[in-house]
From TrEMBL:
Keywords: Signal. InterPro entries: BamC_C, NlpB/DapX. It comes from Paraburkholderia hiiakae. This is Beta-barrel assembly machine subunit BamC. Residues 1-24 form the signal peptide. Coiled coil: none annotated. The lineage of its organism: Bacteria, Pseudomonadati, Pseudomonadota, Betaproteobacteria, Burkholderiales.
């Protein structure tokens, strides 16, 4: 007899509970799993998957009058009250009455916070992910990289009559069969701005075998709507209303320039007809859209340190079983080599190339594949 996805997950949870019964002693199931619980599973305010298109325009008074500043508790960055009544983290002006705006490149959007440094916004971003039920696995202000753990969006589980009644007793056995993770890149922009991007990664558990009694995890495409939803929530954390944040997403300013690929005697490079500040951000966003993840970066030297991202191995490190059986030292050896992507200013344009340890253009086939992937994403 074929088993459903619910039966598969329920059986696993029952076996797991029995296996750990002797270790738990008098503890209840809730106590046993409390340390491994992800709030993203239980929160009733999970982000919507779509941003409404029929939004009314937020009232924007282009005549900015300097209002009195306010300071939040704990010595956080100073906020300013706008003519619309928002205590915004950004610094408003005539072009950005809310102190921030959104720019886009294709289906990617990022937030630009005016008059603030990455150090000003970092504590607010830390609070944001904690409030939304995530644990940060990477929290590196020096590199501007922030990564959440893999978490389950319980809002994806159908709320049918069985779950609302009998299912509440064994709600822990339900699973959406999906896991989400988010990466944030925080970069210093021109004119004292800070650029914030959110990238979504996803995995899905699918049933396998003729009788559907087994399962395996596979990658799912990133969800631009979910990225936009979290970007809207960040804007709300920074002082905007729900309607205002969604309006800024709708009014995102295009920031796109054509990218040319140049094959020379020393190797293949990319030429971006824009200044370093813009090119640096776009390359970081493009890398996040490929199967390579940014481990580190040095903006002063214009270097991104990347490796091939094996989401399956990373997912194994999260959750109860991962914490018990996953060997991070062994996994790090299996992640493959690290590559260096160099972003170099050439006057009014910027050159992008994969380089070796000596700084010369890497001509290996793997390096050229990275260049090709970046070219596809940047165009």
């Amino acid at each position: 007899m074929k088993r459903s996805a619910f039966s598969l997950h329920a059986t696993r949870m029952a076996v797991l509970a029995l296996a750990f019964g002797s270790l738990a002693g008098c503890e209840s199931l809730n106590d046993m799993f409390a340390s491994d619980r992800v709030n993203y599973k239980d929160t009733p305010t999970a982000p919507p998957l779509n941003v409404p298109q029929d939004l009314s325009s937020a009232p924007n008074d282009q005549k900015y009058v300097a209002p009195p500043p306010t300071v939040t508790l704990g010595g956080a960055a100073q906020r300013t009250v706008t003519p619309a009544g928002n205590a915004t983290l950004g610094v408003p002006d005539a072009q950005d009455p809310f102190g921030m705006h959104v720019e886009r490149d294709g289906d990617r959007r990022w937030l630009v916070v005016d008059g603030r440094s990455p150090d000003d916004v970092w504590p607010q971003l830390q609070e944001f992910w904690t409030e939304n039920g995530f644990t940060l696995t990477t929290d590196s202000p020096s590199t501007g990289i922030m990564t959440t753990d893999w978490a389950e969006n319980r809002a994806n589980i159908p709320d049918d009559w069985f779950r609302r009644t009998i299912g509440r007793v064994i709600d822990f056995a339900y699973s959406s069969g999906t896991r989400d993770r988010f990466r944030v890149l925080v970069s210093r922009g021109p004119d004292g701005q800070t650029d914030i991007s959110v990238t979504h990664n996803a995995m899905e558990e699918v049933l396998t075998g003729q009788d559907k009694t087994g399962s395996k995890w596979v990658e799912r495409p990133r969800d631009p709507a979910l990225e936009a939803a979290f970007l809207a929530k960040i804007m709300q954390k920074f002082g905007l209303t729900d309607a205002q944040s969604k309006q800024l997403l709708t009014d995102a300013r295009p920031s796109t320039a054509g990218v040319k690929i140049a094959a020379g005697p020393d190797g293949t490079t990319l030429d971006l007809p824009e200044a370093f500040d813009t090119a640096w951000l776009r390359v970081g966003l493009a890398l996040d859209r490929t199967n390579f993840t940014v481990d580190n970066r040095d903006r002063e030297k214009g270097l991104y340190f990347v490796r091939y991202a094996d989401s399956m191995q990373e997912l194994k490190g999260d959750g109860l079983l991962g914490k018990l059986f996953y060997n991070p030292k062994k996994a790090s050896k299996d992640q493959g080599p690290e590559y260096v992507v160099a972003v170099r200013s050439t006057g009014n344009s910027t050159q992008v190339a994969v380089v070796d340890q000596t700084g010369r253009i890497d001509t290996s086939s793997d390096a050229q594949r990275i260049v090709s992937a970046l070219h596809a994403q940047l165009n």
